[in-house]
């Protein structure tokens, strides 16, 4: 259960107009809202598309929408209509940040592009989440998470060794783009303290997808060798992989020689830490196939959960492989306040950013209906 707000958020007094839909932009807006910004989400007359992305549904609205639109007031406008554009302009007169993910050229067609808005509101930070940016060979094209995973090389290194390329099982590109958008907004607000002027911030899915390629890009830059799929195993270090036990598999994340020596001691494998094939990180990586056989021969006689608990206590990074349900109910998840419960039965993921004096607060549950233009939260209004 989330704690009641104890102080204004770090972004108290910052006013955000969020015109975005789907994932990257709304995720950015939720991050800003969790940390105290007053976020007004403007949806089109039919609502954000993700309201229909279910099941499951509550009050006719999909869980997908509920996961991205906390701490926002909501109203609906048809920006193709002159009168509603005037309403938006009135809202922007009082705003610090605009977040949007319209296709390049759409806002410009309506006289709401960055140049026009900057001339009218010089302190406004205008953040656009786009697929590929506005120019270049792919400029202006729409972008989608799975397509960017395919195009940015992510799918090529995800999947079992020898198997087909595989999409990462969550919208990792959309989410990191939302994070980059929030980071860009904060950088622009910080710079505004010096210059007194806003600026255009762009977070493109394509750029964000490429930015996730570590260490595969670094490996390719240095070696020129095409990265390949390695399943659960890390391409550079070993044992950094799922390993079978007598019960459930555990994930070993051994990153240095000291950890490997402790692992060998606890598995009662004398001499392994000094074996030339395994004594160094580079040797273990080269001889990973033989090492995995040796480890599983020993660990296949042991209980996975007990072994994981024992190894972690001894200083060997490892973990049981948990389901989503088990992860969300884990005692440490509760301790870290990573599950938020609010009125009307809302549950969601908490903020991973912990600030000592101005922690994240959870003030508005996602709104099932449109045009709920709630009053500002005075505790976070900064006035």
TrEMBL record:
The EC designation for this entry is: 2.8.3.16
- Keyword Cell inner membrane among record annotations: no
InterPro entries in the record: CoA-transferase_III_domain (IPR050483), CoA-Trfase_fam_III (IPR003673), CoA-Trfase_III_dom3_sf (IPR044855), CoA-Trfase_III_dom_1_sf (IPR023606)
**GO molecular function, a single term:** formyl-CoA transferase activity
Q: Which Pfam families match?
A: CoA_transf_3
**UniProt KW keywords:** Transferase
What protein name applies here?
A: L-carnitine dehydratase/bile acid-inducible protein F
Supply the source organism for this entry.
Answer: Cupriavidus basilensis
């Amino acid at each position: 259960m989330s704690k009641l707000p104890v102080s204004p958020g770090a972004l108290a007094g910052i006013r955000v107009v969020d015109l975005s839909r789907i994932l990257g932009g709304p995720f950015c807006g939720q991050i800003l809202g969790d940390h105290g910004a007053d976020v007004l989400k403007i949806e089109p007359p039919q609502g954000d598309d993700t309201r229909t992305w279910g099941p499951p549904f509550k009050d006719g609205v999909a869980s997908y929408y509920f996961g991205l639109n906390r701490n926002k007031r909501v109203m609906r406008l048809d920006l193709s209509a002159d009168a509603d554009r005037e309403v938006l302009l009135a809202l922007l007169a009082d705003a610090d940040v605009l977040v949007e993910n319209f296709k390049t050229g759409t806002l410009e067609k309506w006289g709401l592009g960055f140049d026009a808005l900057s001339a009218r509101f010089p302190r406004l930070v205008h953040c656009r989440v786009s697929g590929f940016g506005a120019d270049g060979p792919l400029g202006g094209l729409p972008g989608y998470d799975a397509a960017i995973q395919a195009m940015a090389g992510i799918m090529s290194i995800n999947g079992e060794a020898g198997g087909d390329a595989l999409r990462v099982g969550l919208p990792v590109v959309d989410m990191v783009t939302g994070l980059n958008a929030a980071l860009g907004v904060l950088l622009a607000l910080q710079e505004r303290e010096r210059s007194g002027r806003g600026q255009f911030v762009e977070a493109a899915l394509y750029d964000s997808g490429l930015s996730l390629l570590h260490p595969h890009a670094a490996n390719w830059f240095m070696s020129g060798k095409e990265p390949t799929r390695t399943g659960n195993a890390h391409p550079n270090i070993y044992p950094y992989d799922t390993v079978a036990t007598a019960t459930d598999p555990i994930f070993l994340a051994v990153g240095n020689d000291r950890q490997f020596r402790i692992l060998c001691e606890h598995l009662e494998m004398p001499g392994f830490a000094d074996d030339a094939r395994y004594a160094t990180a580079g040797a273990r990586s080269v001889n990973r196939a033989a090492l995995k056989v040796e480890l599983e021969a020993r660990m296949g006689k042991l209980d996975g959960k007990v072994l994981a608990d024992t190894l972690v206590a001894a200083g060997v990074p490892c973990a049981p492989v948990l389901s989503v349900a088990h992860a969300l109910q884990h005692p440490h998840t509760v301790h870290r306040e990573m599950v938020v419960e609010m009125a009307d039965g809302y549950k969601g993921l908490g903020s991973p950013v912990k600030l000592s004096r101005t922690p994240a607060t959870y003030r508005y549950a996602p709104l099932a209906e449109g045009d709920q233009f709630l009053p500002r939260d005075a505790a976070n209004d900064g006035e």
